[in-house]
Amino acid sequence: MQSKFKYALVYVCLLGLVVAMVLSLAQAQELEQIQSVEVVNNIENEKPDDEAKYLLNQAELDQMLAPIALYPDSVLSHVLVASTYPLEVIQAARWREDNQSLDSQDAIEAVEQKSWDPSVKALVPFHDLLQQITDDLNWLQELGDAFLINEEQVLASIQSLRQKAYTTGSLSNNQYIEVVEEQDDIVITPTTREVVYIPYYDTRVVYGNWWWHNHPPRYWHRPSHYSWHAGIYWGPRIHFRLSNFFGGFHWRNRHIVVNHHYPHRRYYFDDGVRRVTNHEYRRWSHNPQHRRGVRYSRHTPKAVYRQTNHADRKVARNAQTRHQVVRNERPAKVRRNNQVDRKGTIERTQQRLNKLNAHQNKTNVVKTQNQHRQTSQHSARHSVDKQARRQLSDAAQQKHRQTQARAQHQRQQRETVRLNKQRQSAASQTRSTKRTHQERHLNTSKQTKRQSAAPPRHKVTRSNTQRSVRRQNSGSQNRQGSNNQKKR
After folding, report:
1. What 3-state class would DSSP assign to 223?
2. Does position 315 have pLDDT exceeding 60, yes or no?
3. Rounded distance, CA 293 to CA 88, Å?
4. Distance (Å, rounded) from C-alpha 112 to C-alpha 124?
5. Regarding predicted confidence, which is higher, 440 or 277?
6. What is the C-alpha separation between 184 and 226, in angstroms, rounded?
7. Euclidean distance between CA atoms 429 and 440, whole angstroms
């Protein structure tokens, strides 16, 4: 009886040890999972320092945005996005310069097959605008860099400039645009559907007294064929079809939204403001491929030019999967009967080999033709890009030369002023010495005249003595005569 009790007690102790070990293992696993989840959350929540937004110089930003801040939203969004691809904008401006005879619709249809960004294609109808922004390549590149560095600050500056123009009365409703206030933001839309007018205005007047004295607003010269109305010059009407309205502003969040599936969208107008009925708009993201080798600013976030297109990768994975499925589903080759005539087999094999060789040769010819075509296109594109880069470098060098020439001109002016001062001081000294010499000469001449006019001293003395002698002689003679008379 006692032995059974001992065995039962040992069994219970062993069972308790096993249960305790199992519970301790489960707790250890749960603790590891919790720690791993915390580590993952900390890694996800951590943000690198490189992604911190760089604050731009507000004075330079207002100076740069002043000529385009009052453009309609449909055009301004394309200008900001296209400025991040300066080489393509230059190519579009050259193409438009060579095809001025085409109207806006024909120009849009002609560039559909181009490899440019959609925003660059959307600016093709605006010939004057393209020529204006490509004439100042430094401004174009600075605008694109600023937009990539801090998009929110750029859009906030645009709203600030619009508020100032609205306060001064330069921005108001007219027959060309409609100004709508949405909370604290100002939206500028065309009054007529599919018709856009590009404004030109004097940036030194429409915003009132400019608040950055060291950074005056950038000033563009007015084209000759613009018409004056309500304090602003307006360009000719340009038909801008609804399919080109694939971008816009999300003013509340301060970013641009786009939808490249624009042929399938529907719109409605509310109080003259265009609205989009679907929810396919997404925030715009930069495509480094359209940058075409142009260097980024050192303040540009790395996420801008290192991002990958997940949609393209997904499509590639799906295409690769379909290819593998089709390849695995191919039927196995049917075995030939071993009793088939060997001669016929050899002939058929030779025919197949000939067909394969012919097909291979044809494929090689097509490949070589495609390679030649691609190389020619690449060389032509490379030459255009190289010419555009050279133009950008030439513009920078020209600006450097102008700066050096200006500095040299200032040095020459300072040297000229210094020499003039030295000459004036030397002339004044010469005049003073000449005047002293003249005065001395006059004094000497006066003294000589006085000396020449006065009698000489020795003659006066001699004449006096003679007179005194004569007087003495005459006196003595008179005395002698009187004595003689007395004697007589």
Report:
1. coil
2. no
3. 11
4. 11
5. 440
6. 31
7. 16
Cβ contacts of residue 109 below 8 Å, gap of 6+? Answer: none
Say how many C-beta atoms besides its own lie within 10 A of residue 137's C-beta. 21
Which of 165, 160, 120 lies closest to 144, judged by CA? 120
Q: How far apart are the C-alpha atoms of 135 and 406, rounded to whole Å?
A: 21
Q: Choose among 392, 397, 382, 387: nearest CA to 142.
A: 392
Q: Which domain holds residue 132?
A: 58-306
- 134 falls within a domain: yes
Q: Which pLDDT score, from 0 to 100, does residue 473 have? A: 67
Q: First CA to last CA across the chain, in angstroms?
A: 223
Give the separation between CA 426 and CA 219, rounded to whole angstroms: 46
DSSP for 428-479 reads HHHHHHHHHHHHHHHHHHHHHHHHHHSPPHHHHHHHHHHHHHHHHHHHHHHH
In a domain, residue 253? The reply is: yes
Most confident of 139-153, 272-286, 448-462: 139-153
Nearest to 291 by CA among 147, 176, 431: 147
Burial class (CB in 10 A: 0-12, 13-18, 19+), 282: exposed
Domain count, the chain: 1
Out of 38-52, 128-142, 285-299, 438-452, least confident range: 38-52
In angstroms, the CA 77 to CA 158 distance is 11
Q: Report d(CA 242, CA 240) in Å as an integer.
A: 7
Residue 262 predicted with pLDDT over 70? no
Highest mean pLDDT pick, 131-135, 157-161, 170-174, 220-224 = 157-161
Name the pTM for this structure.
0.53
CA-CA distance, 100 to 83, in Å (whole number)? 22
For residue 341, is pLDDT > 50?
yes
Residues whose CB is less than 8 angstroms from the CB of residue 19 and which lie 6 or more positions away in sequence, other chains included: none
397-402 long-range contacts, Cβ below 8 Å, gap at least 24?
399/138
Asked whether residue 215 is domain-assigned, the answer is yes
- The pLDDT value given to residue 63: 93
CA 348, CA 83: separation in Å to the nearest integer?
63
Whether residue 157 is contained in a domain is answered as yes
In the predicted structure, residue 163 carries a pLDDT above the cut 90: yes
